[in-house]
Amino acid sequence: MKKNVLTSRKGVALIIALLILLVLTLIGISAINTTIFETNISGNERVGTEAFYAAEAGVQDGIHQLQITIPIARKALGRNSFYWSGTPQDKPNGAPLRSLGVYHRSGFDSSWVFTRFQVNNTGESFGANREIEIQVTCGPFSAGTIYNN
């Protein structure tokens, strides 16, 4: 007597259980990979934000010394955060702040002038760089063209 192996249902539950376990394992591995990827993204965002705030500290330092326009050398904010004036290429010494000259502004007569400066700063934190560029207007200052009657 010959038994037909294909019509026997013995072991089908084991095969279905193994397939379900395989699918669940793949879903678990996918979830772990997604979690690791998202953790890396949030870590990079944190480091980038720290670099931005380091550059912002450099901008504030530059605003406080506008009339001098000397370079801001690399300054440490913490163990791994720094800022300096200029671009990442200016890291060793810093670049001087730029004076954009004197100009007249509407609403003021010719006896008053304003000065404008450009402040470029780079912040670094754990190897991530962020650059900020701002232009600052100072004034009004007497232009020395006041006429007395």
Account of the 3D structure:
It is a single chain. This protein is of the alpha+beta class and 149 residues long. The chain has one domain. It has one helix and five strands. It is rod-shaped, with a radius of gyration of 32 Å. The mean pLDDT is 88.
Write the layout of secondary structure elements.
Layout lengths: L11 H53 L10 E2 L4 E5 L12 E6 L8 E14 L2 E15 L7
Antiparallel strand pairs: 1-2, 2-4, 3-4, 4-5
In short:
This protein is α+β, with helices and mostly antiparallel strands and 149 residues long.
Key terms:
single chain, 149 residues, 5-stranded antiparallel beta sheet, 1 helix, 36% helix, rod-shaped
Tally of DSSP helical segments:
1
Main beta sheet: 5 strands, antiparallel
Mean pLDDT: 88
- Uncertain regions: pLDDT < 50 for 5+ in a row? none
- How many angstroms separate the termini? 133 Å
- Kindly name the structural category: alpha+beta
The shape, in one word, is: rod-shaped
SSE run: HEEEEE
Count of beta strands: 5
**How many domains?**
1
Q: Residue share in helices? A: 25-40%
